[in-house]
């Protein structure tokens, strides 16, 4: 046996520690192993209790609140939401219970999605009332169609007598033996032809074939 009556210098402390270790080894180390196992089990139990308490508080906090789907302002992004909101079932809900709760001041006249800017700040918009208004069509009646042109394209074509000027291997476009005229500012020529402009834009020129 050994006695721990006095503890002197560092050498004496080392000697006492080594004697304790030798004593545990001589006694098959059964009491020491049991004490270490008890310490580990106590630490594990305490850790489990802390985790259980935290989880219980979180469940009580979320279960005590009502999260109607109409109050959701958008999906959670990486488990996070905008300020004054909480993530529940992958959806962001406002932390305040009031239907028209003010969540902050307007920034340059803008508010988060689902809120509108008022004199007091950003106020939640009643989405049910807005959806009921948008459900009815805005305009009632037959579809609007573009009217078909009544005049013929031949009436707008201007012609004159002459030889015509066109690039090489292109012929002037003629109708009833006369040149088809066009203006440089508004070059309107029949299909498969173009206005050949050789001078000022507001003068008259003739149309040339593209084939």
Keywords:
211 residues, alpha+beta, CC domain-containing protein, 5-stranded antiparallel sheet, 3-stranded antiparallel sheet, disordered N terminus, 17% strand
Describe this structure in words.
The termini are far apart. The N terminus is likely disordered. With 211 residues, the chain is α+β, with helices and mostly antiparallel strands. 28% of the residues lie in helices and 17% in strands. The chain is elongated. Strands 6, 7, 8, 9 and 10 form a five-stranded antiparallel sheet that branches. A three-stranded antiparallel sheet has the order 1-3-2, with no helix packed on it. This is CC domain-containing protein. It comes from Steinernema hermaphroditum.
Structure at a glance:
The protein has 211 residues and is an alpha+beta fold. Helices cover 28% and strands 17% of the residues.
Task: Please provide the count of β strands.
Answer: 10
Helix-strand pattern? HHEEEEEHEEEEE
Output the structural class.
alpha+beta
**What is the 3D form?**
elongated
Radius of gyration: 45 Å
Low-confidence stretches: 1-11
Average per-residue pLDDT, rounded, comes to 71
Strand content: 15-25%
State the major sheet: 5 strands, antiparallel
Helix content: 25-40%
Amino-to-carboxy terminus distance: 121 Å
Number of DSSP helical runs: 3
Protein name: CC domain-containing protein
How are the SSEs ordered, and which strands pair?
Blueprint: H1 10-26, H2 30-63, E1 74-75, E2 85-88, E3 91-94, E4 115-117, E5 122-124, H3 127-135, E6 159-160, E7 174-175, E8 178-183, E9 193-195, E10 204-209
Antiparallel strand pairs: 1-3, 2-3, 4-5, 6-8, 7-8, 8-10, 9-10
